[in-house]
Structures are given as C-alpha cells and as structure tokens.
Amino acid sequence: MTDLTVNQAKRVLVDGVPIALVLDGQGDVHAIGDTCTHGDISLSEGFVEDDTLECWAHGSQFSLRTGKPLTLPAYEPVPVYVVQITDGDIFIDPTVTKEIS
C-alpha cells in the first residue's frame, strides 16, 4: 500500500487485466477496471475527486464504489473488484467483481 498516493490512481496489471487502484482520503483502497467504457482510454491517467475517477479524455466520471458512470459521454459501468489487504499487501482477483445493485 505504500506505493499508493491518496486520491491518485495507479495502473496495475493483474493476470493481464488492467486495473486502476485508488487510495481514497478515508484510507479505503478501490480497484476498478482501468479502461473507460466510452473511449478505450486508461482511467488511471485521470483525476480522482470525491469517490470518483474522471477520464482525462472526455470527462466521464465513474464511481469508485460502484463503477457506474456518473456523467456522460460514458453510459456503461466499469468493473469493480474485491480488494483484500493483508499485512499492507493488496490482493485482487480479476475474475471476481463486486455485486453492485
């Protein structure tokens, strides 16, 4: 976790799956798909604010908790992955996504 900076996204590949990791201001780590559903752009290059990650290219904002797009032009959600932290190490299984209602 020491590699993460508060409110900045970091791109990681887990078994070939691009994931954006974010450490929020409350100390929670979020893992969402790193590809914008609007334009095939890396979300980890975007901006983090108030539990959202904004795509730098077209401004779509995605919820870090649900993956749902909160602004256009994106209308499809990105996957949200379950994060487990053990002894400061972050573990993500890219085959397991959170169930979001």
TrEMBL record:
Keywords, alphabetical: 2Fe-2S, Iron, Iron-sulfur, Metal-binding
Which regions form coiled coils?
Answer: none
Q: Which InterPro entries match?
A: Rieske_2Fe-2S (IPR017941), Rieske_2Fe-2S_sf (IPR036922)
Give the Rieske domain ranges: 1-92
Record carries keyword Iron-sulfur? yes
Give the signal peptide as a residue range, or say none if absent.
none
Q: Which PROSITE patterns match?
A: RIESKE (PS51296)
Q: Which PANTHER family match?
A: 3-PHENYLPROPIONATE_CINNAMIC ACID DIOXYGENASE FERREDOXIN SUBUNIT, FERREDOXIN-RELATED
User: What is the recorded name of this protein?
Assistant: Ferredoxin, 2Fe-2S
Which species?
A: Mycetocola reblochoni REB411
